[in-house]
Amino acid sequence: MHLGKKVIHDSAQALMALHQNFPDSFQAVVHFLSSISGKVVCTGMGKSHHVAEKIAATLSSTGTPAFFVHPAESMHGDLGMIQDNDVVLALSASGETVETIQLLKHSPTRLSIAITAKPHSTMGRLSSWVLPIPEYPESCLLGLAPTTSCVMMMALGDGLAMALLAQKNFSKQDFRAFHPSGSLGQALKPVTELMQPAPIFPEDTPFQTMLIQWINLQTPLVGLINPQGVLTATITASDIQNCNVWDNQPLLCSDIPVANPPMNTQCILDSALWGDAVNIMHDTGQKALLVMNERHHPVGIIYNDHCRNNTFGKPS
Prior knowledge:
The protein has about 325 residues and is α/β, with parallel strands linked by helices. Helices cover about 40% and strands about 15% of the residues. The chain contains 13 helices and 11 strands. The strands form 3 sheets. The chain has a 5-stranded parallel sheet with strand order 2-1-3-4-5, with helices on both faces. A 3-stranded mixed sheet has the order 6-7-8. Strands 9-10-11 form a 3-stranded mixed sheet. Helix 1 packs across helix 7, helix 2 crosses helix 7 and helix 3 runs parallel beside helix 7. The longest helix has 20 residues. The radius of gyration is 29 Å and the shape is elongated. The two termini are about 55 Å apart. The relative contact order is 0.11.
């Protein structure tokens, strides 16, 4: 456990050193990368290979087209993947990795950026820009296995990606276009893609009629609308249980006292994303939200997936 915590501590200290010695060339590199017509070609050997692959993936998913080329494979035909309008982003702590240097020397593009702890190394001299990282000791007990250097290179790559994202005004909708699957893709879906028909009733609907339909719908809440179709109230099971409607029927729906005004945490606009709805339901404990348009007309309902099958029934 001690050694594990030491590695985390060393990584944090290395990142702090990078923060305190942040590359002066960073902004110029971001400005340049935001204006290129080609792609960012990430490359590196050994552990730098894996960091470079991750940086390429993050850049691509946030609006900056990028891909990885293995420096050794590049000498056996993969140089053909690189175009003269691309930019090589080369990673090497020492700056003297032979395979990476060979790629830089033979690359079809003369534009390159080096992330290295040795800005005056061969790789640094061959590159158009250098993003130096501090020469911080590796966390390995032998002082050999790349650890802190990888952490700093990864962080610097993430910094580039996020700065470029901001520079290009990359939006949530843009991100969703590149990431339609998984939990992130789901969170970025508009609520209108996931909503179901809204359980709504005119205000003058007899309570008993509404209650029977509500039980059949198995929904945690319903909405009331006026003759213009505007939402005037939301009714939950708690609202029913907190009044004496069981002993004072018949009642109109509009006679049911509700605890909150309609435009509250039981509603969400149709321009919102599913992730926004999930956060509201998580924070408030709501099991469903009515979806409204800008005119406050209910257009649908979305359910917390885990609560969809909850039923409403008369309290015992």
